[in-house]
Structure formats: structure tokens, C-alpha cells
Amino acid sequence: MLELLHVNPSSGEPIYRQLNDQIVRLIVGGQLSVDEVLPSVRQIAEYLAVNPMTVSRAIQQLVDQGWLERRRGQATRVAPRKQQDSGTELLAPQLLALVQQARQLGLDQESLLTLISDTWKQEANEDGNANG
Questions:
Q1: Is this model's pTM higher than 0.70 or not?
Q2: Where is the HTH gntR-type domain (predicted)?
Q3: Each residue of 6-22: pLDDT tens digit?
């Protein structure tokens, strides 16, 4: 599993969030299956050359979100799937970050929705996508 993880310290996105998103994608994409044991926080931190607290933060968020589970005295495992197959669950961390950034910039909900709609249409036009 370690070889599937990568972080980019210069991306501007916090490393814990990059790690969080990657693990969710691995679960949704089937590269990590239910009950599969994750490497320890220390192993992940050493492999990625990041602070163990950063990895611990990402793992704890995934536990809190129901993607992973921890049992006393046992390794961290992929939690049984609940609603994890939906795209909504996959996008939840990015949507939360987008809403938080919009609020920090002083945008209201209507402005953010308009921006998303305009971006959706622009992207569809550039790609010739009929889904716009």
C-alpha cells in the first residue's frame, strides 16, 4: 500500500489532506479492501518522509469519517463499507475545504454556487463534454 501514497509538499494543499484524500480514493477505487490492515503511522511517515503527527491527523480524520477503524491493541483497518461507494463521499473532503476557503474569502453561498456552475459549464465547453 505504501507505494500507492505520494505527497507533494509544494502543492499548497496540507499534507494531511493529501494523504486523507488518497486513502479515500484507494478505498473507493478498490485498492484497499474492507478489513485490510494499514501500515503503522510510523511506517507511513517514514516512507513519505513526513512528520508522524501529520499522518496521525489524516488517519484520525478517516477514523472519524468512518473510512477506517481502530480497535484497542489492533492495527488500523479499512472499515466495513457503509455509504463509501458514492461519489458524494469521495468529494466530501474537497467540498468542505472549498466551503471553508469561500467563507475565508468572504463569498456567500449563492456566489459560490454561481462560481461552481460557471466553472462546470466552462469545463464542459472546453472538453466538448455533453454533461454540462
A1: no
A2: 13-81
A3: 999 898 889 999 999 89
- What lies within 8 Å, CB to CB, of 49 at 6+ separation is none
From CA 71, how far away is CA 61, in angstroms rounded? 15
Quote the cell numbers at residue 130: 455533453
CB 43 within 8 A of CB 2: yes
Joined together, the cell numbers standing for residue 101 give 476557503
HEC letters along the chain:
CHHHCCCCCCCCCCHHHHHHHHHHHHHHCCCCCCCCECCCHHHHHHHHCCCHHHHHHHHHHHHHCCCEECCCCCCCEECCCCCCCCHHHHHHHHHHHHHHHHHHCCCCHHHHHHHHHHHHHHHHHHHCCCCC
User: What span, in angstroms and rounded, lies between the C-alpha atoms of 90 and 27?
Assistant: 10
C-alpha cell at 5: 501514497
Q: Tell me which residue of 64, 66, 73, 55 sits closest to 17, measured CA to CA.
A: 55
Listed in sequence order, the residues at least 6 apart from 43 whose beta carbon sits closer than 8 Å to its beta carbon are 2
